[in-house]
Structures are given as structure tokens and as C-alpha cells.
């Protein structure tokens, strides 16, 4: 069974083709700058060199047409025709309360995703564009929607409700939803396997750390708490997102600076976080280089990020009444050894002991703990595409 995984953004389209008999990746690629000057496709077929080809993509449909050409013809082909694609799995950011699991896409499902567009105006419309384009180009191929929010629908009410008038929940769905659920699901399951414990009996804290970052408490295989909220803005300090702030700051700045709601939203999402604290950039790699070089602003920014992260880890250990393992994933979590070591050294009270030599690595699956550590610290590169492909296979085999 071959599954095409599609992740549609507003101006990009990421894709993978997976052979689900052995879960191998046959091809992977991305179409960038769709609808913008300078668009291109970057494609890698298993066992071959990566190719980057300038292409004029005005629409996502045109990008998908080029992708189909790349995976079915010439030296970049991984299948002989589109008929060898048995299913398409779509990453959908927001499913609201309507979806607690992945689903086969129907007209009713598309309508429900549309109804969630108010909750994710930057993401769901692009996701829908990808679905419709695929349906037009591959009308006979079954498709599955996999939601970032679905994994967190197991949170108890006391975790997801905000202490504001309940009418806003009933009228507008204002509550905590959480995101990165596909990643948290994969990493927590893999972490349980690494420590030799059934996920149904494990307490795992997953730290998905990248330009967007979130922490999730996974107890007995289910999400019971997570740091992102009604939107992906809440929680940790991120690349350009503020994370948690006192909500009274918003009306204060609107009055003092004459800012509109849209300007406040832009400031919190695109001008805050690491970018604001460092006053030099949002790339964690530059912050890491600055820490090594002794730059004071980089050191402060890293400290502020870690302070918030430690606060969440400690809180989630308390919520679950203990923790078996803390797993790091995402671009920052997988590649920043300095951050992992410093975080570990602030968690010795919890039973974390990091092996400094084991920690000298990037992007590889590894137990970073000393032999006697009571709580394991793990590096688990995430694989959201595999989760999407597995769900497509599971649902279609039903």
C-alpha cells in the first residue's frame, strides 16, 4: 500500500510518498512560494540526489500537478503511475471538538473542516485547498484527514476550559484545543517503546520544540494537558510568538499605543518570542551560536526560553503525579545539545540525569540518560508523516 501524505500551507505544499508494507519513504519534497515570484519544487527520491527545479506555481493545483509528474515520470519517479497511490493523507490543523480521531474525507467532513476555519484562519483554508486540488487530480483515490487537535481531545474538562463566562464556549467554542497533536502522539508512543513500557501504562512529557513549540503531558497514552491553547500562541516562548502573557497587557497596549486588535495579533504572533527577547532574530541556531560565543543577549534569550520550559515540565510532572520519561523532538529539541543539557541539569530534583557524551548528537533517536537515572531523558525525532500514513492505512483497512 502506497500513501501520499500532503501538508498544505498558505504558500507551500509538503509531501511524502510512503510504502506502508515496510513504512519506507519512497519520495519526499516541497513546493515553495506558491503564488509568489521565485516558486520552486525541491524533491528527493529514495536513493537519489535531491533536485531543485524553478517552477511557476500560481495555485496549489499547479504545484500538485508538478508533484505528480515528479513521483510518476523520469528519473525522479517512485511509482509508475498515480494509480499506484492507494490513499492520500492530509494534515489538517484544526478539527475543533468535531473530530477526536482521523477520518475518511467525505463532503460532510469537508463541511465540518470549513466550520473550523474561524478557529484556524491561517491554516484550515490552506488545508482545504489541498484536499480539493487532490480530489480534482486524483478523483478515485480515497483520502483521510488527520487533525493536529484530535490527540488532545482526551484532555479533561478542568484542563481545557477557561475561567471566563461559559457563554463564549457555548457560542464560539472558546476553550483550550492544543496543537502538534500528531507529533505528540508519535513521540509519546515511541518514547514508551524506548523505555520498555506499554504506552497505556506510561507517563511521558513530550517537548516538541521548534519555531513553534509546545509541551504535552501524556498519561496512559492519552493527552491530559498541553501548553498551546485556543490558538498556537499560548504556552512556551517561541520563535516569533510570545507564549503566555498577562491578558491585561492587550487592552493596556491598545490604549497606550493606539493599536488595533489586528496589530496586537501581529505583534504577539510575528514580532515577539525569541525575536523580541534577543532583538536580533528568531532562529534558535543563531541563539545557540551566540551562547557559545558568550553573547549576553543570546544567553538571556536561552535562559528565558528554558525558564518557561522548565515551568511546564514541572507542572506536568505534578499533574500526572510522576513521570517516566521526558522526550525532546522538533528542530530545536532534536539539534540543540546545549539546551538539552542545561534543562536536564535543572531537573535533577525530578530524577533526571543526563549523560553528557550521549547528548553530543543531533537528530538521532537516543536515550540520553545515565544508567541510574530515575526519569529517562530521550531524543525522539518526530515523524508526523508516518502517523498520517498509518492512520490512512488503518482507516481504509477498516
UniProtKB/TrEMBL annotation:
Catalytic reaction list: acetate + ATP = acetyl phosphate + ADP
Residues the entry annotates as binding substrate: 91
Gene3D superfamilies cross-referenced by the UniProt entry: 3.30.420.40
Biological pathway: Metabolic intermediate biosynthesis; acetyl-CoA biosynthesis; acetyl-CoA from acetate: step 1/2
Class in the EC hierarchy, top level: transferase
TM annotation in the entry: none
GO function term, MF aspect, one: ATP binding
Localisation: Cytoplasm
Binding-site residues for ATP, renumbered to this chain: 14, 208-212, 283-285, 331-335
Pfam families assigned: Acetate_kinase
Main localization of the protein described in the UniProt heading: cytoplasm
Cofactor detail note: Mg(2+). Can also accept Mn(2+).
Site (Transition state stabilizer): 180, 241
UniProt-annotated binding residues for Mg(2+): 7, 384
GO CC list: cytoplasm
Location of the active site: 148
Subunit structure: Homodimer.
Family per similarity comment: Belongs to the acetokinase family.
Protein name: Acetate kinase
Amino acid at each position: 500500500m502506497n500513501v501520499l501524505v500532503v501538508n498544505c500551507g498558505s504558500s507551500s505544499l509538503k509531501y511524502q510518498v510512503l510504502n506502508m508494507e515496510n513504512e519506507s519513504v519512497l519520495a519526499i519534497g516541497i513546493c515553495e512560494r506558491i503564488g509568489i515570484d521565485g516558486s520552486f519544487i525541491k524533491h528527493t527520491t529514495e536513493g537519489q540526489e535531491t533536485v531543485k527545479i524553478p517552477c511557476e506555481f500560481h495555485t496549489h493545483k499547479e504545484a500538485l500537478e508538478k508533484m505528480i509528474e515528479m513521483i510518476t515520470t523520469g528519473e525522479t519517479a517512485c511509482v509508475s503511475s498515480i494509480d499506484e497511490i492507494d490513499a492520500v493523507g492530509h494534515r489538517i490543523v484544526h478539527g475543533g471538538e468535531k473530530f477526536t480521531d482521523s477520518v475518511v474525507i467525505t463532503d460532510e467532513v469537508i463541511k465540518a473542516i470549513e466550520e473550523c476555519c474561524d478557529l484556524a484562519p491561517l491554516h484550515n483554508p490552506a488545508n482545504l485547498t489541498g484536499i480539493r486540488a487532490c480530489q480534482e487530480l486524483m478523483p478515485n483515490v480515497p483520502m483521510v484527514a488527520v487533525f493536529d487537535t484530535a490527540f488532545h481531545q482526551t484532555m479533561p474538562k478542568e484542563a481545557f476550559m477557561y475561567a471566563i463566562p461559559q457563554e463564549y464556549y457555548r457560542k464560539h467554542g472558546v476553550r483550550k484545543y492544543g496543537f502538534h497533536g500528531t507529533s505528540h502522539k508519535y513521540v509519546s508512543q515511541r518514547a514508551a517503546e524506548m523505555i520498555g513500557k506499554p504506552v497505556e501504562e506510561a507517563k511521558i512529557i513530550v517537548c516538541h520544540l521548534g519555531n513553534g513549540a509546545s509541551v504535552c503531558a501524556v498519561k496512559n497514552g492519552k493527552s491530559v494537558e498541553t501548553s498551546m491553547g485556543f490558538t498556537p500562541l499560548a504556552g512556551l516562548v517561541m520563535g516569533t510568538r510570545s507564549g503566555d502573557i498577562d491578558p491585561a497587557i492587550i487592552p493596556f497596549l491598545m490604549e497606550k499605543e493606539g493599536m488595533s486588535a489586528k496589530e496586537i495579533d501581529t505583534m504577539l504572533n510575528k514580532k515577539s518570542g525569541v525575536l523580541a527577547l534577543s532583538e536580533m532574530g528568531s532562529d534558535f541556531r543563531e541563539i545557540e551560536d551566540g551562547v557559545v560565543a558568550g553573547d549576553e543577549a543570546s544567553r538571556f534569550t536561552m535562559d528565558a526560553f528554558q525558564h518557561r520550559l522548565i515551568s511546564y515540565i514541572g507542572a506536568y510532572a505534578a499533574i500526572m503525579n510522576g513521570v517516566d520519561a521526558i522526550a525532546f523532538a522538533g528542530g530545536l529539541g532534536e539539534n540543540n545539545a546545549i539546551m538539552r543539557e542545561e534543562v536536564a541539569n535543572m531537573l535533577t530534583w525530578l530524577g533526571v540525569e543526563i549523560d553528557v557524551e550521549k547528548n553530543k548528537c543531533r537528530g538521532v533517536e537516543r536515550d540520553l540518560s545515565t544508567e541510574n537515572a530515575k526519569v529517562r531523558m530521550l531524543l525522539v525525532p518526530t515523524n508526523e508523516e508516518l502517523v498520517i500514513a498509518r492512520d490512512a492505512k488503518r482507516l481504509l483497512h477498516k
